[in-house]
Amino acid sequence: MLALNNIGHLVTNDPAIGNGPLGIINNAGLVADDDGKIVWCGPQDQIDQYTEAQPIGCDGCAIIPGFVDSHTHIVFAGDRAQEFEARMEGLPYAAGGIQSTMMATRAASDELLSLNAQHLAYEALCSGTTTLEVKSGYGLSVKDEERSMRIARTVTTETTFLGAHLYPTDVDQEDYVDLVVGEMLNACLPHAKWIDVFCDRGAFDVDQSREILKAGAKAGLGTRIHANQLQKGGGVQLGVELGVASCDHCTHLTEKDIEALSSANKTTVATLLPAAELCTRSPFPHARHMIEQGVTIALATDCNPGSSYTTSMPFVMSLAVILMGMTPDQALWSSTQGGAQALRRTDIGNLCAGSRADLVVMDAPSHIHLAYRPGVNQTRAVVRGGKCVVGAL
Ligand code: NIG
Ligand code: FE
Q: Given CA atoms 167, 171, 175, 181 in this order, what sign does their dihedral have?
């Protein structure tokens, strides 16, 4: 049982119980049950009707749903600081950098890979991320993809098989697609919920991506795609054609791509990853234009050692608002409910009755401060499944 009151500004993402699209309640209370589910959110003077417990006061702070980071690659070893340094001196970003992380990952012990993934998952939790998707993709052999997936499964249930991240140089390209849809998929299947493919220049083409995603879907996995990160191409159209849960990156889009995403906005989300654009000095997608055209947008970190080495959803929100034209309300929705939609979940990303009591108590008076104070940690406490797991209430 958890009972909170004196919440100055509560974002529920449930327009039925609060103001505006974010369902905001001022001077609110919240009650969760022993199973860690929300029982009630509403005006604080009604809390006695929902609990006999003495509520914990929140000193007028803001509370938001926990962030849902629907795109990370945190199972890896080594880092690519030198590649970053070279890029900042002018070298362009290319898919091939994945190869160097693959070598470090293959050489690492299970213990080291696990520790690194757990450390990054904890870092994310400390900034308010209560649900994390985690991909494989730095093993690129049957054995190393299987263990990457096994390790990913120890940090989350939202695990994604990304054997099709890049061709390893030690295998012929056509043989590699056969391996991914055959032996590798079978080995990873017990640990996987999703399948993903990097459909782009220097990685997999549209036909190969279609074959890989269809094989995953046939085996029972949900589908998602890395699309249009490095150039305009057919990735987004393929994602919409296959009804994937999310087309991720969407850095280089045509109006036809935007139309396709908009026509599929109930099934396929566009997950934007502005920290990847920032760290690769790429153009930012026009999020505001996409929203105006009716595209559903999620925001995520893309945490990985090459293109976006951050776990911070608040930082991503700042970028989305300051550099991609999103409003603070839109960025908050896309980082919580949008991420949940990208994972086809309804029990997270909001504080509706029955949803998981995953929330962030902020050292700030409203969610606007997340974008307004870039790079500043404003997390006072993080609650997951009704239990305080970071900070103190
Ligand atoms: O999402 N696009 C492909 N994968 C990662 C980058 C991986 C890397 O550079 O190590 C991404 O940006
Ligand atoms: Fe990625």
A: negative
